Amino acid sequence: MFLGKSLLVLGLLQASFGHAYQDNDEPQTVLSDQAVKRVAIIGAGAGGASAAYHLDKYAQVAGIKANITVFERSSHVGGRSTTVNVFDDLSEPVELGASIFVKVNKILVTAAEELGLTVSSADLHRPKESSSQLGVWDGERIVFSQDDNGYSWWNIAKLLWKYGWAPIRTQNLMQEIVGKFLKMYDEPYFPWQSLSQVSYDLGLTAVTSETGAQFLESKNILPPFSTEIIQASTRVNYAQNLPFIHGLETMVCMATDGAMAVQGGNWRIFDGMIKAAHAQVKLDTKVTDVIYQHDGTYVISSASSPSSLSKDFATEPEDTINETFDTVILATPLQFSNINLDAPLIEKRPDKIPYVTLHVTLLSSPHRLSAEAFNLPAGSSSVPEIILTTLPKETKPEERAAGVGPAGFFSISTLRSVRNHAVDPPRKEYLYKIFSPHPVNATFLGHILGLSEPPVLPDPPVSQDVSEDEVQEGSTAKPAVTAAQPSGDVTWIYRKAWHSYPYLYPRVTFDEPLLGNSLYYTSGIESFISTMETSALAGMNVARLLADSWLGKTPSSSSSSSPPSSADHKDAVTQDAASSKKTVAAEL
Ligand SMILES: Cc1cc2nc3c(=O)[nH]c(=O)nc-3n(C[C@H](O)[C@H](O)[C@H](O)COP(=O)(O)OP(=O)(O)OC[C@H]3O[C@@H](n4cnc5c(N)ncnc54)[C@H](O)[C@@H]3O)c2cc1C
Prior knowledge:
Strand content: 15-25%
Structural class: alpha/beta
CATH class of the largest domain: Alpha Beta
Distance between the termini: 29 Å
Number of strands: 21
Radius of gyration: 24 Å
Bound molecules: flavin-adenine dinucleotide
Largest sheet: 7 strands, mixed
CATH superfamily of the largest domain: FAD/NAD(P)-binding domain
Low-confidence stretches: 1-20, 308-315, 460-466, 472-481, 569-588
Mean pLDDT: 86
Strand order of the largest sheet: 7-6-16-17-18-15-19
């Protein structure tokens, strides 16, 4: 996700350690037994890193010794937050996954500060050579264009002239919803033992139970603003159209203030968190089994990940290591983890939910985006540097990959200019990022770059299908493509298919943070809101639940009423979201 500074991002939140764990608290007397607590965290992404970071803090304040081990099957920390290097040049990292967070993402903002990382505006390096910063393309024409001064009176006047009061209503609604969401960081809501309950208590289930289209309509936010602007945002952020994505994630897409990124890569936050927690990290180590023992502990079996083995050893049997832990935090979607989870006390296993397969293409080219490709006059200097997409007015929105519509892609961002030193003399090029439901081919690239012939791409040609294993492993060790022709029209290209985020169909219950006896789960939050910050929040929440359990504290209940039962939860896989009925009275 890479968006303009004034429009369309992901936002949220406020961090708090809650009263019992203020940072300046003196360590408490240990109330529980003195033994060192052995905690296994599976996954070194935002959720796992935050769990380690906060658990270490809570344990210190509580005077409890925690021995934290983080298992990570890939070769890097950060999970879906990771960078690759343009031209293989270490000084040119570029985000391949999660690229931005926003001002109200307090866990990330605070951690970046505490860890001494440099944060800058997300579009600091955008070339800013076009008179249009951002445009929305429907496959036939640019339906909206914004110049480079996001908050200029001209941009605001244009918005109001075209869309009336809908932008203002949206802004107010977004602030109201983010305000409710922020309460999840504070007592009496934090820590929450049930995500379904806290969502209900805060009135957010009323928003997750409807599609974005239904929710916006009920608030008198109508087309064309909803379909041209808000839907462009849900598509670039989540590859989903308004009649299918739920209302809460729709509103999150409009929380855009203060989009920022960590210099060198957002993964540095998660790397710093794990280091600060003094956790032992086992990279290239996949967990294969989590087995509950009668004494209440878990045995974790792990082995070297295939990606870390050289070809010579690929067929050798893998050495399995078994280790015992008191607590396990599963910080990755269970369905992609290939873990055999043998824990009979689990009340409800996490749902298998559909995830978006998103194709990310990074490429460098000396050419700028073509005006003709976007039906602008030849040579126009106003080709937007960031092109978002929506559907033409008469096109019926579809779901999943077919939802992309005539545009064929979700976004094209001109990230920055780069220097290609492989040609003599070195030349300036442009670094682009494309989000699409299918791999983009040479013909498409030739078209958007205004070339008479498709560019020559690396040999062998990129396969149109990335194997499910490659997506699941989340491995960047095996990129689909590396460098192209040093002096060609596309000089560097990198492709990656991700299980990027869930299809966020309306729902009223969520997978809970506590799966069973001392077994915690962070990824349930992805069906609620899927961002780095919310995974970090889920990590902080399970850390606090765990620390409280060590201290013999029972979670405070803020609720006076019950959330909908899981029987009300429409099957996310088969549900026709567009026809979903309201199951919860609108509380907003
Ligand atoms: C292309 C793209 C763009 C995005 N843009 C943004 C954005 O701009 N802003 C934003 O906030 N969010 C964005 N997101 C979403 C964001 O990346 C995720 O919500 C967040 O990073 C999820 O963090 P996580 O820790 O929950 O999961 P992950 O990051 O997926 O971490 C889970 C980790 O567990 C490991 N693992 C899995 N199974 C095993 C096993 N068996 N043994 C050991 N390790 C295992 C995985 O290798 C992985 O490293 C984007 C995602 C993608 C893909």
